């Protein structure tokens, strides 16, 4: 009987395991997860879980009963420490060895750690795991002051949740705008306004120059000279893919474990998906995404290809973030400031920004306009080419379908 092994216990691992069974894989499947929990999804950690509105059962992807129904072997609290590619074996921290016919690396990513005086302080938090969220939540008492270091998605979502819970919130960012890597300037500005309107203090083009406090941070001095007293510091300065295992085994590594459009690594028996995978497309461009949908879609495609389907993965990448009552969604290629852009204004500051390249719709950002996203998805799937400026002027986007 064939044996497929999946390394990692997150979104990609859970989706791959389910897909294998949905697609009729009859061999054995083992999931190796270093976390001591059932596979769970992470997006609620900075939102509903931190707000106390979702417990672990709500975020669990494969409950105990489903493990049994799907005949999946989950090794919890086991870390994969080495790959023996010649012998097609995974070596676990316990010394146990697992043989595989096909292997999926779905080891995700981990928070980038901060150097300097903030590191190691008792009130400095990172947010990646359910345990991290529980620890942070316990510290977030109303009236306290929370500082997010980094104005990326995690820093901003945590600041928004803090305000909802009655804390004071501030964000310090070295760049001149929010989510500078993913959002065009005008969308970053709109997001900044929302934060300011909710009383979050945003410090752009700013560094922390001094940290006061011995075991815990009591205050930080900013490059502007301002001193901020703080109770809680959350670091959100990006993530690093967990590639070490693959790299030590001699697999090709770029900005992640390099895979082809079939999600195959440089070893044909080994696949990778999710945050850890850097997919090289036909043009040689290598793209690594950190998003729920990417983990989900790539893992499903990888699982089918592990079973021999051989179909190339190409999906318009989709991402969302919830901050306060704002829902922001992005699809396809829409992050750059350039290209041809059409803007549709909605009510109360909502808008949809549509990007066209080579005469075709290539992506969109829906800022508090989730209904538009459903239409954009259908337009993208059809390979829609706009006539003139109809994307901006059509009274109803649905009419373009
Ligand atoms: C707080 C937070 C909020 C987010 N919000 C959003 C959002 O709103 N929208 C969105 O699109 N995306 C969001 N994301 C991103 C999204 O959750 C990730 O892109 C997704 O979880 C990636 O799934 P993955 O399976 O690739 O990796 P992960 O979920 O990181 O899972 C990898 C697992 O592998 C384990 N592992 C690593 N190395 C080993 C090893 N050697 N042996 C065994 N196990 C190992 C890890 O411990 C981990 O459990 C958020 C992420 C976080 C942390």
UniProtKB/TrEMBL annotation:
<keyword id="KW-0285">Flavoprotein</keyword>
<dbReference type="InterPro" id="IPR023753">
    <property type="entry name" value="FAD/NAD-binding_dom"/>
</dbReference>
<keyword id="KW-0560">Oxidoreductase</keyword>
<dbReference type="InterPro" id="IPR036188">
    <property type="entry name" value="FAD/NAD-bd_sf"/>
</dbReference>
<protein>
    <submittedName>
        <fullName>Pyridine nucleotide-disulfide oxidoreductase</fullName>
    </submittedName>
</protein>
<dbReference type="GO" id="GO:0016651">
    <property type="term" value="F:oxidoreductase activity, acting on NAD(P)H"/>
</dbReference>
<feature type="domain" description="Reductase C-terminal">
    <location>
        <begin position="318"/>
        <end position="401"/>
    </location>
</feature>
<dbReference type="InterPro" id="IPR016156">
    <property type="entry name" value="FAD/NAD-linked_Rdtase_dimer_sf"/>
</dbReference>
<dbReference type="InterPro" id="IPR028202">
    <property type="entry name" value="Reductase_C"/>
</dbReference>
<keyword id="KW-0274">FAD</keyword>
<dbReference type="Pfam" id="PF07992">
    <property type="entry name" value="Pyr_redox_2"/>
</dbReference>
<dbReference type="Pfam" id="PF14759">
    <property type="entry name" value="Reductase_C"/>
</dbReference>
<dbReference type="InterPro" id="IPR050446">
    <property type="entry name" value="FAD-oxidoreductase/Apoptosis"/>
</dbReference>
<feature type="domain" description="FAD/NAD(P)-binding">
    <location>
        <begin position="4"/>
        <end position="299"/>
    </location>
</feature>
<dbReference type="GO" id="GO:0005737">
    <property type="term" value="C:cytoplasm"/>
</dbReference>
């Amino acid at each position: 009987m064939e044996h497929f092994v999946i390394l990692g216990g997150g979104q990609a691992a859970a989706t791959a395991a389910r897909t294998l069974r949905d697609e009729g894989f009859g061999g054995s499947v083992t999931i190796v997860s270093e976390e001591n929990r059932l596979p769970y999804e992470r997006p609620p950690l900075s939102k509903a879980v931190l707000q106390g509105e979702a417990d672990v059962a709500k975020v669990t992807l494969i409950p105990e009963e489903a493990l049994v129904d799907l005949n999946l072997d989950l090794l919890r609290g086991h870390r994969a420490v080495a790959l023996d590619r010649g012998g097609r074996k995974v070596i676990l921290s316990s010394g146990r060895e697992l043989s595989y016919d096909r292997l999926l690396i779905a080891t995700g990513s981990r928070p980038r750690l901060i150097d300097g005086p903030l590191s190691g302080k008792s009130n400095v938090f990172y947010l990646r795991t359910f345990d991290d969220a529980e620890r942070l939540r316990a510290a977030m008492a109303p009236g306290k002051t929370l500082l997010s270091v980094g104005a990326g998605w995690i820093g901003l979502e945590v600041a928004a949740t803090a305000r909802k819970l009655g804390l004071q919130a501030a964000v310090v960012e070295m760049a001149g705008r929010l989510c500078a890597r993913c959002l065009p300037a005008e969308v970053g500005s709109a997001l900044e306004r929302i934060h300011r309107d909710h009383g979050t203090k945003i410090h752009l083009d700013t560094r922390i120059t001094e940290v006061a406090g011995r075991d815990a941070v009591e205050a930080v001095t900013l490059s502007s000279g301002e001193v901020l007293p703080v109770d809680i510091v959350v670091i959100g300065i990006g993530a690093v893919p967990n590639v070490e295992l693959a790299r030590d085994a001699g697999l090709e590594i770029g900005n992640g474990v390099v895979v082809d459009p079939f999600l195959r690594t440089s070893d044909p028996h080994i696949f990778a998906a999710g945050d850890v995978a850097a997919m090289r497309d036909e043009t040689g461009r290598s793209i690594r995404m950190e998003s729920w949908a990417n983990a989900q879609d790539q893992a499903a495609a990888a699982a089918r290809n592990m079973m021999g389907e051989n179909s190339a993965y190409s999906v318009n990448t989709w991402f969302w973030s919830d901050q306060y009552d704002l829902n922001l969604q992005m699809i396809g290629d829409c992050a750059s400031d350039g290209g041809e852009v059409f803007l549709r204004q909605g009510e109360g500051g909502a808008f949809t920004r549509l990007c066209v390249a080579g005469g075709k719709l290539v992506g969109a950002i829906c800022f508090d306009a989730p209904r538009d996203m459903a239409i954009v998805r259908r337009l993208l799937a059809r390979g829609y080419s706009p006539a003139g400026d109809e994307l901006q002027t059509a009274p109803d986007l649905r009419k373009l379908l």
